[in-house]
């Protein structure tokens, strides 16, 4: 399992792990957000959220 906190400035670190599933960051109300494409549809990652990638590649946000 991999657990990484999105800080708003570590897009490249997440992109290296998630590849094409990670969409470019965007800004909303002064914060940076990301979208990750999953088998169940896109999920949003806000600054300070943790992206958790399970052993089988499943993705969740904490």
Structure, described:
The protein has 62 residues and is mostly beta strands. It has one domain. Helix content is 13%, strand content 45%. The chain is built from 1 helix and 6 strands. The longest helix has 8 residues, at 11-18. The model has no long low-confidence stretch (mean pLDDT 93).
- Give the low-pLDDT segments: none
Q: Provide the succession of SSEs.
A: EHEEEEE
Overall spatial form: globular
Structural class: mainly beta
Summarize the entry for a quick read.
The chain is mainly β and 62 residues long. It has one helix and six strands, in the order E-H-E-E-E-E-E. It has one helix spanning 11-18, and strands at 2-5, 26-28, 31-38, 41-46, 50-53, 59-61.
Secondary-structure map with pairings?
Blueprint (H helix, E strand, L loop, with lengths): L1 E4 L5 H8 L7 E3 L2 E8 L2 E6 L3 E4 L5 E3 L1
Which short descriptors sum up this protein?
62 residues, three-stranded antiparallel β-sheet, mainly beta, 6 strands, globular, single chain
């Amino acid at each position: 399992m991999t657990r990484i906190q999105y800080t708003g400035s570590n897009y490249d670190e997440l992109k290296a792990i998630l590849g094409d599933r990670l969409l470019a960051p965007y800004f909303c109300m002064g914060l940076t957000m990301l979208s990750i494409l999953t088998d169940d549809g896109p999920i949003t990652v806000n600054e300070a959220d943790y992206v958790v990638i399970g052993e089988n590649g499943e993705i969740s946000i904490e």
